[in-house]
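Sample entry (113 residues):
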Amino acid sequence: MRHAAFCIAVLALSVLPADATDYSASGTVYILRSHASVVGADKDWFSLVNVSSLGICRTADAGYIVLRLRDDAKGQRMFSLVLAAKAAGTPVTVVVDDTIFDGSGYCYALSVE
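Predicted structure, serialized as tokens:
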């Protein structure tokens, strides 16, 4: 009986979904782009110097990871932080979850510090 209960417990635990992995990177802002809403929502993005790998996030623009910003209040605050860091030449740290991306495969920034 104990063996059967143990087997059931192992099977139940083995089918639980795995947590996504967060990745972080730091660097100075290479480029920051903002597009009019005519182009579509969530089209603002930036990239960091020498950040060319964050999980399966797509690269573009000189081989650096493209980090999308959402078109909401939090995305606007992140845009402001990235803009200030670009103007000052100071590094920022970004966190992404490589399972959260747009239709083109570019990851969204979860946080910018």
